[in-house]
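Ticket #4471: structure export looks truncated?
Reporter: QA, pipeline team
Priority: medium

Steps to reproduce: submit the single chain below to the structure queue and open the exported record.
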Amino acid sequence: MTKNPTANGAGAIATAGLQHGEMGESRISRWLFNRTESSWIWLILRLYLGYEWFSAALGDKLESPSWRSGAGLAGFIHGALAKSGGSNPSVQGWYASFLRGVILPHAAFWAWVVAFGELLVGIALIVGIFTGLAAFFGGFMNFNYLMAGTVSLNPLLFVIATWLVLAWKVGGWYGLDRWVLPSLGTPWHPGESFHHTS
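Actual output as written to the record:
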């Protein structure tokens, strides 16, 4: 009889109850993304990410008359469009066309969307409510900044957001998700609020 050398190790893969074609999950992955004992890690990352979005919304956008009027966003877009030329552009042609055709003509409207999007993502991450969704939309904004040729902190924030999306079940344990998620549940598993007793 051959023993599995990793059966009791940290890298062991859980295979019990798997259907054909399913992959097991390592213990470290289960601990990071499913166990509340790992929530302190996500709390630190969540608060950092939330602070970055919240302070960007208030300091750079909502308190800036230039941003509120749309001029700030228009300037940002013109800067991105300037990076779309040459043999190795920082901004791809299709994204430049999107900025030129969809965002730039309505810069004032989109400036408010961006500012309030950043603010709401920041607040949600700080208080730990709908952590996975907030991190997803934060990552989506990081993606758009990167596509517009702005590096800055965006790669780091995108990676943290991606990890928080993966940790959606425990990422907000030290926050409102501790009560909200069991109450509301998920689309595939309704929570306590949807269970009616007769």
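Status: closed, not a bug. The export was complete when the record was re-opened. Leaving a note from the reviewer for reference: The longest helix spans residues 39-62.
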